[in-house]
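Annotated sample (chain length 109).
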Amino acid sequence: MNGKNVVKEYDYYTLDQARQIIAEEQVHEDKVIAWRVARARAIRQKKEQAWRVYRIRLAIQRLMAVGMIAVGILISIIGGEGDWTPAFLMSFFGLPMLVTKNIVLNFER
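Output written by the structure step:
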């Protein structure tokens, strides 16, 4: 070592300084955790809202299908004079809307 005394310098903290550094790091971690929780909550609420809209649209679609079938049967009974073609056609279009889980009708404005 060339005869020189090499001394490494270290930063030593007092107990109060160390507590302050740890507290600052904890505040940062708390902010990150709070942000992640808020983001997860927002994603969950968005999914729940989309599920509610889907259920409402599906219910409206099924009600319209039942209405189509009922109108077809009523037309056949009241004014068909024995002709069941309207009931058959309305059932042909109404039954798939009634049994499907997909949104067939678009109710967007």
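Annotation: The radius of gyration is 35 Å.
Annotation: The chain has a mean pLDDT of 85.
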